[in-house]
Amino acid sequence: MELFTNLGLASAELFSLTTMALMMLGTLVGLLAGAIPGFTIAMAVVLVLPFTFAMSPVQGLATMIAVYVGGLSGGLMSGILTGIPGTPSSVATTFDGYPMAKSGKPGLALGIGVWSSFFGGIIASIVLMLIAPQLALIGLEFQPVDFFALVIFALTVTASLAGNEMLKGLMGALFGLLIATIGSDVVFGLPRFTFGIDAVSKGFAFLPVLVGLFAFSRLLNDVRDPDSASKRLGGDQSTNVVQIDYIASAKVVLARWGNVLRSSLLGVFVGVLPAAGSTISNILAYDQAKKASKEPETFGKGAVDGIIAPESANNATAGGALIVMMALGLPGDIMTAIMLGALLIHDVIPSPSFISDEPTIAYSIFLAFFVANFMMLFLQSITLRGFVLVTKVKMYMLTAVILFYCALGIFALNNIGYDMWTLFIFGVLGFVMRALGFPIVPIVLGVVLGQIAETRLSQVFARGDGLDVFFTRPWALFFILLSAFSIMFPSYQKHMGKKRWTRFFLPVLLIVMSVPVFTMPGYVRPVIAGLMLLTGIVQLIMRLREPSLTADQTPTT
Amino acid sequence: MKTFTSKIKTAAASAAMIAGLGLAATPAAAVDLPCDTAQLIVPWGPGGGTSVIFGIFEQAIQSSDAPTKIKVVTMPGQGGGLGAKEAHAAKPDGCTLFAIHQHLPVNYINGVTDFNWDGFESVAMLTDTPEIIGAGGHVDYDDLEGMLAAAKADPGKIPTGVSMGATSHFLWIILGSKTGADFAYVPFQGGTAGRITGLLNGTIDLGGINMAAARTQRGDGKLKAFAIAANERSDLIPDVPTLKELGVDMTFSLTRGVMLPKGTPKDIVDYWAGIFKGPTENAEFVAEQAAKGTSVVYLGPEDYTKWWEATSADFVNAAKELKMGRFQ
Question: A351: which chain B residues are within 8 Å (Cβ-Cβ)?
């Protein structure tokens, strides 16, 4: 088979001692950069880039992929142990990872995180090897209006993330969107809401806002009085070294293979869409896991599924982004943009025929991604031992060190002092909002999505399209309909089995969603739509024939 | 390598050399800078065309015997204006350099900066990347003539991807003013990649494309290239005619170079010009850039200043004609 010939060619190129050593080093650099809040994966890749100029294309790319994979997984260490996401890609990991670690099971939480990252990466690399070109074309189907609908859908996630604080969650999301409007408008670059301060015309960079809201505010909260400041991060009972039981945690993850698979595929899908990336995919996957879960009330208190979903999704997203970079020559995020630059330096130009023209390089990239996940697993098991020692440090010392690194990382991002002020201001703001009981995630979501939404919507109108495109383009309609169901979902989950309408929720969902899927190009998706429609109708008929439930009966679904 | 102990000697020697040899500023003619490493501000994000090219210069200077090394510092924002302001405000001591292309006249016209290229001392022009007039594979016309006819038949309606008020926008504004055509501008940010996605999936009909895309995506019929805005055809895409051949008297390229803050002493300007000249004479670098459609063109401080005067005038005149930005 051609696949194996190409893999053979690529492995001859990839599996040299030097390349393997470089990849190991790259993974380690990525892990460390990912683990330090404020240091991003992009930064690590940028730092590595100049060294790759002198390497062969395969060697250079393999090293960068190793950094990329290491970084995506490194974020979970600080996310789970300190509750501060090491990178934006592991924001959702903190929701359940940190509570689980605090409840005395840090070893289990870390083990689950590491294995989920690993399986996410492996699933993505398999998808990558099998259907890269076809998948890349889906990314191309997304026109501005479809993107805008996707953003709307992502915003509805707020409803389920906000939990009981629905009103505060919505206020937070709107506040986030407001923050995203400050700076320069996305169309003409003219200053907006700057109050005449020149520095503000740059707007608030996403990362300082994120680190401020998450890391700084949490740290402030942890040292708010002398008593809590002298506590240890892991509580006083965890003074003995944390053991990570890899076999037990692997079993836990494998038992929930459905969640791993769903989150990974979702991650790949988001990766395929240009400019979406793992910042969004980890939160979306978390939300989907919560919706699919039989016990959504455990989420946020240390649910296993709440760790599996974001960690498998963010590693899988890297795979999706690589697909688009190679098959279309279009970078989906900053990391793949840098890799594309590295390819161009060696006069290797990705295009739709890249995978068949340059099989050695293309399959080396697939393989490197695959191999890097194993290296990550191995290195995690070593570095974690060191990292868990963090839990034994007293809070006031730890706070100072983490804040120092945050500020350093933020400054190095754009080399501008203003970003550190942004970090400070949003840190204080986050502290106040936490104290008032506002959930932080909707704010972050608003900041991330605000600018994408505005850019895309302005493109829709600049093209001279009318509002009807929201309903005539398949993907746009798909996400608009999905948003409607997503908004109703928390209420469905709450009343499931108690109210008659909830019985029809899933069949109706299937039937309605089959409409946009049916109108998509190709043969595969119309067939899927047909199946969805059929399943929906069969389910609907079955539910209609069931005797009506009384309030005390338990649901049979 | 020169050390600080020979400070006075070096200064005297270099002054003597420059006085004696005139333009022969070689890297050896070191002036004494108050830093071991000078920062080169690149006003765009990492991974972009400009930072990659200057990354190569950084590497080359790092491995040369130049006494002062450079470090690329990326400072993206405001379409290059943010980094420009930072570099403009820096001390004119030769320790802060600025990587520039035509974004600065554009920043000035839009009012993002209140200084133009002459807010800096011109040091050296380094590379030149001509723009390619591109279209999506889905459009009906196959050449520039057809494109202009379509634009005139439906003025201001053909969706054209540009970064509003940036160089990619001016390409079409100037083309429009030379041919009487008018386009509908769809804002795209983040450089060429987003625009090419838009062309491939039919969001936009027209847009400037890069050499990489012109070389690979046309074979599949997904993109079309109508003209290259250079003086001569490119060896890489010899079938694409120049605008001049097609009767439009216009060239338009992204020209990258280095500047120093206003008021930097002439010997420091000449010193850096000599340092940056080194890599441009390296055959491997020239070949690498040629493969990306970029030609390496070195111009020293005097010629580069003259080039800026002419180029900036083109931009400002086009803006005045259309009453854009500060000329409203």
Answer: 213, 216-217, 220
Note the pLDDT of residue A237: 53
DSSP string for residues in A374-398: HHHHHHHHHHHHHHHGGGGSBHHHH
Q: Which residues of A touch B112 (CB under 8 A)?
A: 189
Contact check, Cβ <8 Å, A463/B185:
no
Closest partner CB to A458 (pick from B82, B187, B216): B187
pLDDT at A9 over 50: yes
Tell if the CB–CB gap between A353 and B47 is shorter than 8 Å: no
For A197, the enclosing helix (H) or strand (E) is none
**ipTM of this complex > 0.85?**
no
pLDDT at position B27 over 60? no
Across the A:B interface, residue pairs with CB atoms under 8 Å apart total 130
Residue A196, phi then psi, degrees to nearest 5: 75, 5
Handedness of CA B171, B175, B178, B183 (dihedral sign): negative
Name B254's bridge partners.
B129
For chain B, the structural domain boundaries read 4-129+254-327, 132-228
Please state which of the four CATH numbers 3.30.565.10, 3.40.50.2000, 3.40.50.300, 3.40.190.10 is assigned to the domain occupying B132-228. 3.40.190.10
pLDDT at B18 over 50: no
Domain B4-129+254-327 top-level CATH class: alpha beta
Question: Nearest Cα to A120, choosing from A227, A23, A262, A218?
Answer: A262
Please give the pLDDT value at position B188: 83
> Which residues make beta-bridge pairs with A192?
A183
Q: Which of A248, A265, A270, A241 is nearest to A115 (CA)?
A: A248
Q: What is the pLDDT of residue B14?
A: 42
Asked if B203 lies within 8 A of A416 by C-beta distance, the reply is no
pLDDT in tens, B294-316: 899 999 999 999 999 999 998 89
- Is the pLDDT at B20 greater than 60? The verdict is no
- Whether B132-228 and B4-129+254-327 are alike in CATH topology: the answer is yes
Residue A395 burial (10 A CB sphere; 0-12, 13-18, 19+) = middle
